Amino acid sequence: MPTDIHKSDALFRFEMTRASLNALTSMISATMSQGDGLDAIAMGVYNLLSDQCDELQTIENAFREDFRRIRQGLEAVQELPGAEYYEQTMALVAKLMSEGKTLTQIEALTKLSKSTIVEFIDDMPDSMKEQAIAESKKADPRELRKDFIASKVNDGVDAGAIANALNLKRETVEKVIRQLKASTDSSAISNSSSDQRSAHG
């Protein structure tokens, strides 16, 4: 009995036909072996029909293997991200492009490989791509780099890792981090002074 294919399918009927032929082979052979000098012929008939049944078994096994591979392929396709994921990722790549992010920066932010990012860019509608490029030209690369470094520092990322992601020297990243900290400290002092003046007022 088949274990991996539903009983109502064609392969089940194929198997039942083969089993019936096997039974018929045994019946004919047994009948002809009951004397009357037909023993030799019975052996020949049995071997002839048995060979055909063996061939059918081989064909059935091949069909089952093909069906197994097809089913695995269908399951793999079902696990692929859908159209919604594709559109959202493309929109994200376009947004990062419009912010002036480099290919390396987009790779670090999205965890996509550079080749995959390029594929998304190539597949973008012309209007989306042109808008992203136009907006990226308005962005200040230094400010964008500073924002990226600030974001990664807040996430606890090491300066060396940030430098690798941006293809910069570690010293350059550390300099920007010092500037960010100094700016943060100045803002904190300014806010504290304002609060004190408000309290005295």
UniProtKB/TrEMBL annotation:
This is ParB/RepB/Spo0J family partition protein. It comes from Rhizobium lemnae.
